[in-house]
Amino acid sequence: MDTLKINEIIKVKRREREYTQEELANVLGVTKAAVSKWETGESCPDIAMLPRIAQVFHITMDELFGYTLEYKPLKIVNEYNAGFRLSQLENYALLDHGTVKQCTLQKYGRLEGDNMVQTWEVSVHFVSNEEDFPYTVQKYIRPGCVIDMHSLRLADGKIMDDEKPNKHYVCKEKVWEYRNTDAKYVRDMIRKQRDMGLIGDDE
What we know:
The chain folds into two domains: 2-64, Orthogonal Bundle (434 Repressor (Amino-terminal Domain)), CATH 1.10.260.40; 76-195. It contains seven helices and seven strands. Strands 1, 2, 3, 4, 5, 6 and 7 form a seven-stranded antiparallel sheet that branches. Helix content is 30%, strand content 28%. Helix 2 (21-28) packs across helix 3. The chain has helices at 6-16, 21-28, 32-40, 50-57, 61-64, 133-140, 183-195; strands at 76-85, 99-112, 115-128, 147-155, 158-159, 167-170, 175-178. It is α+β, with helices and mostly antiparallel strands. A hairpin with a 2-residue loop joins strand 2 (99-112) and strand 3 (115-128).
């Protein structure tokens, strides 16, 4: 019991409540000598007396025994990694919702009538830990565009392997989220993206 310092806690709490040893003894139905021995560490309260002491001091049993809560709730975050071209955004304010990890200038081709037109575009690798980030992307993406991203679930910085979605496709009209092992969902998603004109038949 010495390591728990229950004697010190009783003494401190008694003084905080402005009880004399005799007053505390009367409240608990014990002698003043018993309270004195508790406080000097000569003896300890009977185990059946402990809940009553905690109640009188308005503290928990853990507090009476000097225990402190060392457990910290597990912090779980989603780290979203997105690759997109700046031309896919209606509003660059999306960049306020995370960090640009890499920025490159790349040449892309687009079909205009029968001609293939080459253009240079800025592509970024973007990372965000915001909750529901795919739905934030949906607010800023241009119609007719789709952005592909993946996410990691991190528990206190360590990667978790659970059943939460880790792949995300975002367009103006819809957000698809799934596990990358779900082949049936992927086939259905690709079919819907083709129907919506977001990707071509050969993609």
